[in-house]
Design a protein that fits this description.
Elements: H1 2-10, E1 30-34, H2 38-47, E2 53-57, H3 60-69, E3 79-82, H4 91-100, E4 109-113, H5 118-126, E5 129-134, H6 139-152
Parallel strand pairs: 1-2, 1-3, 3-4, 4-5
Length: 159
Amino acid sequence: MLTGTMTKIQATNTVPEALGTDPTVKNQPTILVVDDQKSMVLVLSSIFKDGFTIKAFLNGLEAMKWLTQCTDSSTLPDVILLDLEVPHLHGKDFLVQLNYSGIYRDIPVVVVTGDNSDETKQFCLSHGAEAYITKPFDPKELRKKVLDVLNNKKLPLQN
């Protein structure tokens, strides 16, 4: 199943919009995944395939461009899963831009990264990240954390 999808992903800086999701299902929370590793995008998409719509990008600049093209608050993602080591717009810079934006600052961000330094964690949390999870992670714990973040945002969830 993932082999065919991997070929599609390699051809572009974006990932198929709805990996493992049905884009025709309404009222599903949308997760924006920003990670340069195609394998991690597939892992994250598989963790959230049930009950979520996934939009994924392999670099920060493309993800930010997509955000700026969202026409109203109903098209914005409900949560962002952000790796820090992404090309073209580093995850920290992406987070800072979100934090200073009046439009995007209320979108919860869960940083999912291999950087386990306290300094980086504190930077991210002080610049608006709701949570900081280091790789490798437990998929059930990540899903629970995202659900908690969404519940704090008071969104209807379909588990």
